[in-house]
TrEMBL record:
Transmembrane stretches, start-end: none
Ranges for domain Sulfatase-modifying factor enzyme-like: 6-220
Organism the protein comes from: Streptomyces prasinosporus
Protein name: SUMF1/EgtB/PvdO family nonheme iron enzyme
Top-level taxonomy: Bacteria, Bacillati, Actinomycetota, Actinomycetes, Kitasatosporales
Gene3D superfamilies, A to Z: paralog of FGE (formylglycine-generating enzyme)
SUPFAM superfamilies: C-type lectin-like (SSF56436)
InterPro entries: CTDL_fold, Sulfatase_Mod_Factor_Kinase, SUMF_dom, SUMF_sf
Top-level taxon of the source organism: Bacteria
């Protein structure tokens, strides 16, 4: 895998996904517009190229970057946008509790959890887009460690490691009334049991926390059609 492939973006078609929350027994449908999502989680080499930093516990260029907070991920998105001459998606005022998302920007951003689940499913309706051992690194096959990206079979849309290896930060607040600023995590990780590695599973963490099985991937909004 070369750097160009490692950083490649996949066009995700529009669709509709039904999100659900086990705690509240609530479900809600969401319409998803077309967008782009990175084929792989952000790797340590890509993160270092953009930020000059290597924060991960395990070291390896093709390993997913981990030990990065939600804020780290948001700042990476803006730095990558500037590096590639795009308009940053986020405004990061120093005194704000959360960034503002400019939905008209063409730069990189975190996926929403509806986008993430829609992309993960890739048109499937079951708990996973393939047999777990074929598509994901999890407790049952990871050997207790993180693995290079792209080592398992992708889903039908060409997205790798959507389940297992590392959890992905998403843009959304998990449940503001109960958990405050906690943000959504999706996908399951290398240390998780099989039941966490499902398309519908939601986890949460504080946006300042850095965890050794949490990374992220980047998205971009699809450009509007030309008149």
């Amino acid at each position: 895998m070369d750097a160009g492939e490692e950083n490649s973006m996949i066009a995700v078609p529009p669709g509709r996904v039904t999100l659900s929350d086990r705690r509240t027994q609530r479900s809600w449908p969401v319409e998803v517009a077309p967008f782009q999502l990175s084929a792989f989680p952000v790797t340590q080499s890509w993160y270092a190229q953009v930020t000059g930093q290597r924060p991960s516990d395990a070291r390896g260029d093709r390993l997913p970057v981990e030990g990065v907070s939600w804020w780290d991920a948001v700042r990476f998105c803006d730095a990558l946008s500037r590096r590639e001459g795009m308009t940053p998606a986020y405004r990061l005022p120093a005194d704000a509790e959360a960034p503002e998302w400019d939905t008209s920007a063409d730069g990189y951003r975190l996926p929403t959890e509806a986008e993430w689940e829609h992309a993960c499913r890739a048109g499937t309706t079951g708990p996973r887009y393939g047999p777990l051992d074929e598509v994901a690194w999890y407790r049952g096959n990871s050997g207790g460690r993180i693995h290079p990206v792209g080592g398992k079979r992708p889903n039908a849309w060409g997205l790798y490691d959507m389940l297992g290896n590392t959890w992905d930060w998403c843009w959304d607040v998990y449940d503001a009334e109960v958990y405050g600023a906690y943000r959504v995590l999706r996908g399951g990780g290398w240390a998780d049991e099989h039941w966490s590695c499902r398309a519908s599973v939601r986890r949460r963490s504080h946006p300042t926390f850095r965890i050794d099985d949490v990374g992220f991937r980047v998205a971009r909004s699809a450009p509007p059609p030309r008149p």
